Give the backbone structure.
Amino acid sequence: MANLKDIRDRIKSVKSIQKVTKAMKMVAAAKMRRAQDNMEKARPYSRSLSDIIQNLLPDVDRELLPLLEVREVNRIAYVVVTSDKGLAGSFNSSALRKAQNEIDEFGKDNVDIFCIGKKARDYFKPRKYNIIESHIDFWSDLNFNHAVSIGNNIINHFISGKVDEIRVVFNEFINVATQMVLTEKFVPLEFDSEGSNIADRLYEPSKDAIVKSLVPRHLNVQMWKYLLESYASEQAARMVAMENATSNSEDMIKDLQLEFNKARQASITTEMLEIVSGAEALKG
């Protein structure tokens, strides 16, 4: 059994860590509320833009834009969206595991990777995957310009013919306790034919001109959506992880306090026995 000083030091250490996890939970909760608000504002805009383009695409020639060109898929690129920091439960590991499984299934030699966040870069780099770009240290001041900058580089990789398709692996925010890892095709743009079953509309100046104008904007908005969904999911996952850590530390403190009391009682009993034994020895 550990001595009293060791147990007391452990209790003090756990209480110090508990203060840190409580503070991290509060910080994550505040960031999550802001991120969730931004994400919920962007969702309707993204859906509306998708609906308009989905209604227009069947009526335009796909040769109108390189972004609409459907090619035979021999090489693809993956955009893997993770965080820069850990302590967020399975947030990063789930996305990385899904991305790696899909990349290995297609063949890692035929896949280019765009890493969003340090965790993705640090995961794929030592494993010798073909990383084209890494984007890190921007989450704290995330804004739409980041989405445009990242999206343009990824789109140019497709337009130049280096890959035939680009997919994005990210965490979709469902609620505070649930985040779902998804893979979505980024380019070329393809929609279900059912999306064209919308009442006839009049378009000015023309459908071709609108598609040329909206498709680049749509891709920027999509990349913005991926970043917002991932950031909100990260903060929610971290908040839950820190809440669980705080709860576990409470249980650990109780167990250590019980162990401390047992050790203290054993120490008192031993001292009493020594006193009684000493008194008996003096009588003798």
About this structure: Helices lie at 4-56, 91-106, 118-124, 144-159, 207-283.
